[in-house]
């Protein structure tokens, strides 16, 4: 999925979508890998959310609640997003 597609799906500008992805990369929720002229992003589903709570939930657990069942299987192996 391209950043352009993410922006369209969310109803935000490409610049805002890119800013969000950059913030997630900076917070280590997403890893960026350069492939030619494109960037490939991988969601780090094992990374814990940054909240001081008794339960240590991961970003993968949060995403599993937000996505459909087919996508849940993909989360178990990691998700790639191309920009």
Offer a few descriptive terms:
3-stranded antiparallel beta sheet; single chain; 83 residues; 3 strands; alpha+beta
> How is the largest sheet built, in terms of strand order?
1-2-3
Beta-strand share of residues? 15-25%
| Strand runs, count | 3
The domain tally reads 1
Low-confidence stretches: none
How far from one another are the termini?
A: 7 Å
Number of helices: 4
Q: How are helices and strands ordered from N to C? A: HHEEHHE
Structural class: alpha+beta
**Anisotropy-based shape:** globular
Largest sheet: 3 strands, antiparallel
Amount of helix: 40-55%
Overall mean pLDDT score?
80
Radius of gyration: 13 Å
Plain-language structure description:
By secondary structure, this protein is an alpha+beta fold. The chain has one domain. It is built from four helices and three strands; from the N terminus they run H-H-E-E-H-H-E. Helix 1 packs across helix 2 (about 15-25). It starts with a helix and ends with a strand.
